[in-house]
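look at this one:
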Amino acid sequence: MFKPIPVAIGLRYLRAKRRNGFISFISLASILGIGLGVTVLITTLSVMSGFQREIRDRLLEMTAHATVSAAGQPMQHWPDAVKLAMEDPRVAGAAPYVDSEALLTGTADQGQGALVRGIVPEQERQVSVLAEKMDAGSIDALQPGAFNILLGSELAIWLGVSVGDTVNVATTTMDSTPMGSIPRAKRFKVAGIFTVGYNDVDKGMAFVNMQDMQRLKRMGQGVTGVRLMLHDLNQAEQVARDLAGRLYQLGQNVYRISDWTSENANLYQSLKMEKTVMGVLLSLIIAMGAFNLVSSQVMLVTDKQADIAILRTLGLTPRGVMQVFMVQGTLIGVIGTVAGVLGGLVLTTNLERILELIEHLFKVTLLPSDVYYITGLPYDLDPHEIVLIALIALGMSFLATLYPAWRAARTDPAEALRYE
């Protein structure tokens, strides 16, 4: 089988002579360094992506993908908004809501601020998993006029209440009286307790019937807005804009839109930045392997001075000499990258079992359930990230071969063979 001369010689040089096995050892160290860097980078980014996905999914279980609300006033024509939204094939569910920040006070007279949301139980099932997260009671207990309330588990503990107790809900809406302005307040009966697994929800949210909240806030039939659940959450902003535009064409008021990315921008930007920084730092491991590759190639060029001079006298051009060592160095990078990708896939998919083995052997708990809501080890192997990591490793390996190959191409045959 025909092979170009630089490729054939480069493959031959992949293993140094027996008398100079140290160079082979450095080449092996370069392969291991690149492979280890790729493995660690794939595993770390996959686990970080898994935690990011887990946090996002838990948050979006109770947060709408998109929201359409009236600008600075209650939304009066919300039935039209729900009807138009459900006509859009991209929308999986739509539900009205009334939000109000409030101070909740339990039986122990210990107050806690929370977001109290008025909902329609039948429609709420289309946009959240509240009905599936009930530890006690049922979402169906939120009947109009009953003034029942559902509390997050952390909020209930903080207030010192359980199912059947009452809590006082004081909203931020004020009433003017001869004694001055006082907040509108109402006592609600605790009809259920839920646990979502996300602290901001479990300690900072409560749910009541929408009509009860409308009566408390004296906003008539108006609502704060309409929440949308989509089949593809990445289309949230565009779907909300389309719905607001259709409502505006019907002659209604201007509407404000928001989506899950904007409502939780700080969280997702910090997670994204943390992942990016971690990726850059761990890429230095691959760079260390590339530096080892530079040293091994320089030593190989020094060891092969006589061979290079002979090849030059036989007619091999400086460009051909450079290609010989570029092929040899690049092949080391390819082997290390392939080994790293395979190692990363194997390590990532078995990392949870490895952690379980460590916990069993050393009698420790790495992810205690009383501290972390996520007791497993989620991961998300993104093919695009794996390809990008492989390309980065191959690029570093290729760049690492340029200087040694250029140095080999500048070898003077007469000088190299003077003492041979």
